[in-house]
Amino acid sequence: MNLAAQTAPDNLPCSFVIFGATGNLASNKLLPALYHLEAAARLAENLTLVAFSRRAWNTDTWREHMRAVLTDKIKGPLEGPVFERFVARFRYQKGDLNDVESYRALAANLPPESACSSTVFYLAIKPAEFAAVIQNLEVVGLNKPRGMNRVVIEKPFGEDLESAQRLNRLLHQHFDEEQVYRIDHFLGKETVQNLLVFRFANTLIEPLWNRNFIDHVQITVAESIGIEKRADYYDRAGALRDMLQNHLMQLLTVVAMEPPPALEADALRDEKVKVLRSIRPISKRAVHAHAVRGQYARGSIQGQPVVGYQQEDGVEPNSITETFVAAKFYIDNWRWRGVPFYLRTGKRLARQTSMIAIRFKHPPQQLFRETPIETIAPNWVLLSIQPEESMRMEIHVKQPGLDMDTRVMQMNASFLKTDEQTLDAYETLLLDVIEGDRSLFIRFDEVEWAWQVVDPILRHWTVEREFIPTYPAGSWGPPEANRLFDSDDQSWRDEL
After folding, report:
1. Domain 187-423+444-484, architecture per CATH
2. What are the extents of the domains in the chain?
3. Nearest to 269 by CA among 441, 429, 432, 433
4. Chain segment 296-339, per-residue pLDDT in tens
């Protein structure tokens, strides 16, 4: 994001270690992102990449693996000179995450402290393995110098408030907070970053961004895919832990935050924490009124039949793990008091989309009640995050002719010119890690307050284990999600 002061070239890390280098995250996200940064000449010449995995490979085997992975994942053709330059950066390190001798071998192969300012350790591994890696890094001295070497942690950050606090205590025993980069790739999306500019750089928008003019806010992250052979993780986590507590809550904070006093990492995160602290607590008796869960059953996606969640390989029999969650939150501060924020996410929904939909209030005067129009729909601001990235505003205009008829027009505020391309979210965030810019990464108190918000829901569902509503794959979720709305004229926005 480049909001923080730029790291001097001689202070850039010279080693980047990927734990779990042969796993899905590394193959699908990290390697393609690093390759694209290589192709764009954004990586320092002296940066060495280390692939750490338990497979009995050597560096040549690893390079063949990279060729196979990148052929499927990168944008455009795999260019010979770029690829050769990229693979030349890599060394393969066979090792066991639980074996301290593997870390000693890793340390021996890294440049000495006198020759290298810092190293990045990316934990592309299961959350259950975080503790072993963090502790072993200290045993061999790779957490030092304090404040320099960096550790990147993927979500989920804990399974509930208590486990998140334990994880933070563990991290702070071995690393300073300035060394910890908790990554949420949604914050690297160009639309999410552009939302800050859209709000705070336009006097046309910011005066209307409050409870006086906005009726409600919807945040939707819908996936058409299923659990994709991740039953061992997903059946323990569910949609609330996997998506809503992190991705959707982060989007909520960006929509609702106050303008920070400066474009600095901690100033931005201070304002996000204020939002989380202002969310009205949900009492035990009010969970049903504020949250709905569901699980996909048999159905079809793009005309192809798919099995229900309980028929997926590896899922526990009669599992009540939620694959869909919708929730309603209120932010009790001066700007947002009384405005409902509706969040929903799910798998096997009608289509893949992530968007923020902000509905404005109805005009105070029914000026057109004696015309063919009678009533007019309220205005919307629509922010699409994926699959496309765009920003639109819906307004009413009169249709040509004698009658007083209107139509809705979309003012497209999309920021891309025809010949421009955005960086992928992981490309942005990996570059920020290398350059030491923490603006788009999550601070420990953000994690804890986000868990505080959703913990009442989680605890209630842990007790209620007899029944879970279902929805057919290819739909927009269980009809029970509609009962969250505060008024009859509110409904889920499924399309841009």
Report:
1. 2-Layer Sandwich (3.30)
2. 9-154, 187-423+444-484
3. 441
4. 999 999 999 999 999 999 999 899 999 999 999 999 999 999 99
